[in-house]
Amino acid sequence: MALRLRLTRMGSKKKPFYRLVALDSETRRDGRALEYLGYYNPLQNPPEIKIDMEKVRAWMEKGAKPTDTVRSLLKKISA
User: Fold this and answer.
1) Residue 50: CA atoms inside 13 Å, Cβ hemisphere, count?
2) How many alpha carbons fall within 13 Å on the CB side of residue 21?
3) Nearest to 76 by CA among 26, 40, 36, 45
4) How confident is the model at residue 10 (pLDDT cuts 50, 70, 90)?
């Protein structure tokens, strides 16, 4: 079972809102998540990013790999 940290889309049409989730890599984009780790709202100015870094580190220690988009969000939080 390959674990991934990725975004799942929420919100209505033309108003995206994303949750950062940990799930199996074979699960569909909006499938059931193992755990919710935070959220990303690109419509705010500046974009609102809230991520629980302790949970992210715990999942990465278990072998979860972030997608490219999640990796860039994590860099923005760390910087």
Assistant:
1) 7
2) 19
3) 40
4) very high
CA proximity to 3, closest of 34, 24, 19, 21: 24
Q: Could you tell me the domains of the chain?
A: 3-78 (3.30.1320.10)
The CA-to-CA distance between both ends of the chain, in Å, stands at 31
Task: Tell me 46's DSSP state.
Answer: S
**Which residue is associated with the tokens 């929420």?**
10
Instruction: Please write the tens of the pLDDT for every residue from 44-64.
Output: 999 999 999 999 999 999 999
| Maximal C-alpha separation, the chain | 38
Instruction: Please state whether the peptide bond connecting residue 47 to the residue before it is cis, i.e. omega within 30 degrees of 0.
Output: no
SS3 letters across 47-72: CEEEECHHHHHHHHHCCCEECHHHHH
